[in-house]
Batch of 2 targets.
Target 1
Amino acid sequence: MPAPQQEAGAPPAAVGARGGEVRAVLVALLGSSLVGSVPMFATGLYRAGMDVQSLLFWRYAIALCVLWPLAIRFSSGLGQEWRLGGMALFLNALTLGMLQTYTYFRAVEGMPSSVVVTIFFTYPILTLALDRFLFGKPVATGSLAAVALVFTGALVTGWPALSFAGGDPIAVACAILTPVGFSIYIAVAYRFTLRTSALAGAAFIYSGMAVAYASIVLATGLKPPQGATGWASVLWIAIVGGALQISSFAYALPRLSAGAYSIIISMELVTVVLLGVAVLGEVLSTWQAMGIALVAAGIVADRLARARHAAAGAVAGDRSK
């Protein structure tokens, strides 16, 4: 069985290897596409009477039924992984993770999802700032242009329907808090996913989330899904938008960086729009088409900027030999 990715403080073996980075990018794109389906199912559950805390408890509890058996099977030492980074991931999820998931789902409950998603996509800007000032990573001009394209794309996609009208004050506050909480959460997670294997890291993270929401539903009550359709929606959110997504997060994040990962997963916005068209029968407006094109351009621009930066670094290293 494979050992944890590496010793404490050391980068993953795949970091710096081009093939490993490409795989991480593809895994991150897949994960962001999967989680982009969650708001569509969550909205239907809210209409059927489920509250945010119940939905999130079911999401994490069911996902752990998948994650823990896999983590046990493929980790050579869960105790060691817990000491190296698992406990920190658990606590990060229990606190910041709970905050950013609750504010996001609570905002979707009380506001149009297009508005929530647009505000949420300020997080790549915040994450790049944390990369620069917390981890001392240089931020290329191309990456700055990329986050500008992503945010502009999110803004254009939601335009002209963007409005706080009809949103309750708590939902508005939650929408604003979500990108802040997510940026800090992802920056902390980056450091400690370097020290655990992907499946163990994913299980530790969702365990923290599950404990947080179990505590909440003990106080507020737990609502079960209504009927077969409700259970099917919860299972999709828990497994496809949950277990698979967090596994992709724990795999891709340490092989990229918090800033790079945050830009790549902007693909979530594209998924939200395209699912609305394909599944809900919504009409793809000119504004939406322009918006998702800008988001895609931002993702490509960031990858090109980072590839040029890596190539320049390699050339400089060869010349110094």
Note: The mean pLDDT is 85.
Target 2
Amino acid sequence: MNNSLRGLYVITDRQLHKARNMPLQDMVAQAIAGGARIVQYRDKDSGCEQRLREATALAALCHRHGVIFLINDDVELALAVNADGVHLGQGDAPLPLAREKLGPARIIGVTCHSDIARARHAQEHGADYVAFGRFFPSQSKPAAPPCSLDILQQARAQLHIPIAAIGGVTPANGKQLIEHGADMLAVIHAVFGATDIRDAAAHFTQLFAQYSPPAANLV
């Protein structure tokens, strides 16, 4: 298992960024200062030049701090800014094509919602991690299909790659996700929508210092 894929995983959000009088790079820097270990740049609305500019700055920031930097969906942008990898949703680029372009060393994560069979398929075809959720009501993606803690626990028993849990995750409910097998807590609003981004990130980081997920199935 890739031991670097553990901890707080923050995902940028264009609307939350626009709502604050703060550069995106500063928002992410505060999350990193609070302990974020993985950053995903997600922006499906801005123009190519802006996305390239922001992703370049965030890649440099993350790499200075030893933090994993991923791009949502866009393999070409990930290559252009030397990101550590990509995250693929169910409607994004096929995993084999992304792996062919990115090579063996970069990270590829795959959204699986509550589909363990899809997660096993992703694992067999070279995914480095999978994401399950939403687990709780989500402000960022209220219409996302739900996933249960039982599914998460079953997935942990069947998979040997890291698992991210996403969807309405807060410091209050994050403990049970870790206890049921989540290696990463993927968070949008609870960090970037918080009054104090650094403090919000630190509350998540403390969970990983206190609780350890069950061991992965290595068979």
Note: The chain has one domain: 7-210.
